[in-house]
Model the fold of this input.
Amino acid sequence: MDSRDKKIVEDGEVVRVPFGAMDALQRSVAASQHALVVDAFGQPAGFRPGFCFSTSTEEDPRPAAYDSYKQRTSDAWQAGRSEPSSSEAKDRSSPQREEAYAQYVDYLTNAWRSGK
Done:
């Protein structure tokens, strides 16, 4: 008996078999689900390389996300800022402060003379 009679595939031979394993229930489920992301040919995007496109008809979320980001970053520098209290405003014009500043200016003016 030859191996061809036993229907055994020899090394290097190719066997083509039709694949019809999808039943009616799976086809109806597949037909009712619309892919949210498709490839360039309109087929559901999987794990293949290439560009993907959204099939959503909703408004593009990118401008809203960018506006939110811009608002957060433009106001971020003001996070710890507050108006000075009345006591802080008084401290800025106190006689002790003005005297300390005058001593500082005098020190800088004469620092070169003493070699310090």
Summary: The first strand starts at residue 37 and ends at 38.
